[in-house]
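Hi R.,

Here's the chain you asked about this morning:
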Amino acid sequence: MKRTKCLAVALCIGSLSPVMGQTALKSLTVDNLSAWQRISAQAVSDNGKWVACKMEPWEGDAIVSLYDASGKELASFPQADRFLFSSSSDYLVVSQKPAWATVDSLKLKKTKKEKMPMDKLIVYSLSGHREQIDSLKTFKLAEAVNWVAYQKGRKDSTLYVRPLDAAHGSLSELPAVKQFGFAKKSGMLYYVTTGNKTDQKPGLYILHAETGAKTLIKEGDGVFKQVTFDESGENLAFLYCEQKDSCYKAMSLWLSQKGAPATSVVARGHRAFPQGWVISEYAQLHFSKTASRLFFATSPEPRQKDTLQLAENRPNVQVWSWNEPVQYTVQEYNKAKDLKKNYQAVYNLSDGYICQLADEELPHVQLADEGDAPLALLFTSQPYSLPSMWEGRTRSDYYIISLENGRRTLLASADYGRYRLSPQGKYAYWYAETDSCWYTLSLADGKKARLTTPATFPAWDEDNDVPDYPRAHGAAGWTEGDEYILLYDRYDIWRFRPDAAEAPVNLTLEGRRNRVSYRLLKLDEEERFIDLRKPQLLKGVNEITKGDGYYRACLSATAAPQVLMAGNYMLRSIRKAKNANNVIYTMETFEQYPDVYYSTLDFKKPVRLTHGIDQQEGYRWGTAELVSWTSLDGCKLEGVLYKPADFDPSKKYPLIVNFYERNSETLYNYRMPEPHRSTVDYHLYNSNGYLVFNPDIRYVDGYPGQSCYNCVMPGIAMLIGRGYVDEKAIGAQGHSWGGYQVAYLATRTDLFAAIESGAPVVNMFSAYGGIRWGSGLARSFQYEHTQSRLAGTPWSTPQRYFENSALFTMDKVRTPILIMHNDSDGHVPWYQGIEYFVAMKRLGKPCWMLNYTGEPHWPTKTANKVDFQKRMFQFFNHYLKRESMPAWMAEGLPAVDQPYELGY
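And the predicted structure, written out as tokens:
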């Protein structure tokens, strides 16, 4: 492998207006990042007249603001947590937490938990009245009526149920309540109480919130679990066991209809269950949409430990077997879940028929028509688990089962396709990655149809660059009655008859020609099919400009979608009011904060509600520019160059190169300032005079390191050729896959003055045999078929493993390296970071390693993220801006000093 000197690299090869003027003087600091407020939640009332938005710093108290349709802020709620509009749209309910600073100060004083302040609940009327409920423990707001239920105090278990308008309606106080919940589409509330010594028996009750009528559904002081209403509240199901210690084996299923006392539906030993099976206490009960069926689960009776043997007298050993279908580490990771594993069964309310649907051989069930279809899909991948360890995909066996008589019919064996059912259950459908075709199978007559072929419809990802079959662009959904299925190609939406009786129709017509990718937006959460008679809202992404747009399309016929709004910006987070044609959405560029806008569905007169952009006032702010070049192996490439706000092309600037795989499509991403867990903050570095470059990379199977070099180095050379890059002040930063790539580049070039490599792989041989401890999976599939792209094993392609491993050419590194790798990393074994550090140390090369103990693949605690950003900023400032070396770099931070100082 040839090394490249800096000079050789140089020789080888309509938007939103900026919000800041030339008066911006301050540079961002890492502390500014922690205080930066992002919009973490937003909601629009069902009538479309009100909007609430939550602004939240990365460290500190959130605030919820309420707006009307004109953009006027009507009220604000500090220290906010959850917020919900009432079903009538007349109220906003907000829970408030104690102030962040107050809690911290009390913790420093070692205040006991029972003495700490509690939450509050604010009930705000849109007419302006505000009511506060103190010492809040928990609350639930009814979805269908203006009622709320809550509990107060740490030791008080009284449940308070009342209308949101306290002046109209009575308050119910229900003693000793352990659990409660509202029906989705009525004012019915259930609650479980231990009772009192006067007028309340222990058991499960129903309360009709609006009338105050209480009904005892099941008396008992045993264990109630999985209490569930149907949508209307007319049916209530639950599990019950008399003895707490017997729940694992003696749960029974109970049902109450129309407020009548509950009756036992089924218990252990039923003939529908396999021998020795019991009703599982862990599975959520649920009704079908029409409440004609009740779904529950069973399992083999859980084994109990031998209490007659001391734990220290029993060997504690793991036995890993070469031919076990599931890797032992995966078994260990899933152990807690597997101990609760259960298998779905169904009770038909009309005739009392009970059917065991799933079992240990066919454990997975997919229902259709929200549980009302006569057939369901059964499947298993268990016989094929072993090869999935290295294939990265799995085959499955599929069956259809009748919910009316339990009869099973085989559909497919050892199939790589992921079968799904159409909404009404008339068809199974799937994309076959092995031949890039979509298929359907009629459940009525078993006829299989191939809807697409590679010659007629490019259903696959045309940009696929991993050594595996490309994935599909996906399905938009089905029309009413399963009449048509709508499929995506890269750009357009196509209509197909599921029996392939008609030629496919391109409904959006011109997406591919204009290089605009159209995707259907689902605005109604309860919509189960695509109504071709109604106009649909699409989002379009322009591959050339990288800008977004909203479009109206009538999918009943072929026509180019109508542009509602489109431009050089990114559109996200659209939500529609349930009962009105009003929406909220965000619009952003790198310079323009993603504030929330309110509009009708024609988007003609949008109103900006939030003003997060005001935070940028007084700070230097960068700009984003799309750039292009050609890779060393002839590929046309794009990337984004982020420039300081006061950029002067006649000056020389330090440059940070940060990348992962492909980024150019995020040209208009605002990149919210934050103390990131794994990457440089672009605004921080722009604000402090850095250029930041994020190049796209196109990979060749078997040569990920060389592919990175071929793409990144000429991109940097292109920028150097423009004359404004300081060639002695270029740094690189990447994390995980990006960390691997910057580590590899350090062995190939002296161009970089400093590199930060986070959670990198440096030894492909040892990494291949490692474990992803966050899932228990062996890492082999990643190298043979997915991201690491070596397209072979260490035995079939050893040279590839050697050439792509930075460890074996570490003696060629001339660049100071900062490594961040944490000892609880569940993605990349942290011994990779240790191998990196030890090699650099042994070779006498400048290197530092950060280990945030107990943290996973990246720091998650705010204090650790802030620390990482400060140290990385100091590292780059030293090597790229010639600032003094901080103490932690110059002198280290000895273990005995670490608890007392940080070395900044």
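The radius of gyration is 30 Å.

Let me know if you need anything else.
M.
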